[in-house]
Amino acid sequence: MHRFSIHQQNEINDEIEKLLRLKIIQKSKSPWCSQIVPIPKPDGSTWLCIDFRALNKATIKDSYPVPRIEEIIDNLQNAKYFSILDATSGYYQLNMDDGSREKTAFSWKTGHYEFVRMPFGLCNAPDTFQRAMDEIFQKESGRFVFNYLDDTIVFSKNEAEHKKHLDTVFGKIRSAGLSLNPKKCKLFRKE
Q1: Whole-prediction pTM value?
Q2: Does the residue 143 lie in any domain?
């Protein structure tokens, strides 16, 4: 285990307690163990990252297509209204496969833990999240919705149509049990 300052140790303790409380991680008996890497956030708090490089090296890569931003923008040419919806802690909203949880294990002085929800840093996390979002919006994708990882872009030709599209999208998000980050959502933007 690396050495951390007292401040970093306190931040890591707090973050682990929070992740346990939110059922994002759980105690583990896994033989796997990746290193904790605390990353400072702009607001002064700490983002608890795990160095999954060894796990990623041993992982069979998913080849699900993640769209390119340029392609999405090219397909928005005729739209007049836009909304961008941001999934709250996107990856954490997806459950880890039971057989994969033990591979996400990490240790801290308070114990050995593994992720119940999908963490950031896994090589297949973007593909897995993109696939999940594309499945949720299968009928709407390309018609009035584009998904780019944890962002959902809703686009329409006029305001009335945009309201209907947003109602549909919000309903799908609710049905899927996902939550949005209102601070990062941008609604009813014009061109």
Answers
A1: 0.85
A2: yes
